[in-house]
Amino acid sequence: MEFRTLGRSGMKVPELCFGTGTFGGSNEFFKAWGQTDVDEARKLIDICMEAGCNFFDTADVYSDGESEKVLGRAIDHLKRADVLLSTKTTFRFGPGPNNVGSSRYHITQQVEGSLQRLGTDYIDVYHMHAFDALTPVEETLNTLDKLVREGKVRYIACSNFSGWHLMKSLSASERYGWSRYVAQQVYYSLIGRDYEWELMPLGVDQGVGALVWSPLGWGRLTGKIRRGQPLPQDSRLQNAMVVGAGPRPDEELLYNVVDALDKVSAETGKSVPQVALAWVLARPTVSSVIIGARDEKQLRANLAAAEFKLSAEQITALDAASRVNLAYPYWHQVQFAERNPFPVPQQMSE
Q1: What is the C-alpha to C-alpha distance for residues 227 and 230, in angstroms, rounded to an integer?
Q2: What is the pLDDT of residue 17?
Q3: How many angstroms from the chain centroid is the CA of residue 55?
Q4: 206: Cβ–Cβ under 8 A, 6 or more apart, which residues?
């Protein structure tokens, strides 16, 4: 397993991170993702550790805190220093006007809760799960900086920010000498390349690494969804709540991408999801790609995506199949590639 630098920080993270949204399954939304209990979670984590994937991602809102609890118990047989833990806050966690957001009140309350549920005294990467437009960024960042200085948090990151949200936050950190976001957790896949428009160039310029969530396009690039075929009964996309909460790519784009993935799959002898993951791993700024799995077979297959690299020709073919019309001003900017070059990809095979 290759280790990469997490943005402009001194920490190395494995190129694959295991996402634990499937742990717990305590409400309707997360039951559609999975209901992994402690015993099964421990087996999956041991498989990850054996493969060199020691990075585990969760959030306070995943199954109302149950994901953190299951993860904490599932790693209690390991040395804490051997694992990297990532969790998040911002979304509502219970009733009351202050149980939501990125205020000092909510962050302080939630970080203590996460530490308790995870059974640890520090968090390696702590994310603001979304941008809170009602709380000054100075309040949020000052609070996070205090947590870093207290040793409760090692590094801070954000998730689902727009370009100006992130840049405003980085500017505040620089102005006051506070800890800065070293990573951003982003949705990025062959059928969702919006990350490239604004956030990727910002990441290159400011040294913010990408932790990619849903690299298989919200479950659409598993190889089971194809033109003219019904949706598999075991797909989480059968759940209207899950579909409504996620991206909705154009169907023809999806099928064109799957066709291209099939071609590369035949050339490499790798599965469709493995090829889709390998494409994301080759993209600029990507520090780690978050994979999920309901069972051992699925996990081992996803971990194997780190064992090969796509050729430049294969990446170009996948790029072409997944290209969409850009929004303004990006369609205008790409016409002047001489002055606005696309970021350099990760190392590709010959």
Answers
A1: 9
A2: 98
A3: 12
A4: 8, 166, 167, 170
Burial track 88-120 (b if 16+ CB lie within 10 A, e otherwise)? bbbbebeeeeeebbbbbebbebbbebbbebbeb
Catalytic residue among 62, 155, 181, 187: 62
- Assess whether 62 carries a catalytic annotation: yes
- CA distance linking residue 156 with residue 63, whole number of Å: 23
Which residue ranges of the chain lie beneath pLDDT 50? 348-350
Helices (H) and strands (E) in the chain, counts: 13, 10
Pairwise CA distance, residues 157 & 212, whole Å: 13
pLDDT given at position 230: 76
What's the half-sphere exposure (Cβ side, CA atoms, 13 Å) at 100?
9
8 Å CB contact between 23 and 44: no
Please state the pTM of the whole predicted model: 0.93
DSSP strand pairing (16-19 vs 84-89): unpaired
pLDDT at 29: 76
All domains in the chain, ordered by first residue = 3-336 (3.20.20.100)
Q: Angle at which helices 312-322 and 251-268 pack, to 10 degrees? A: 170
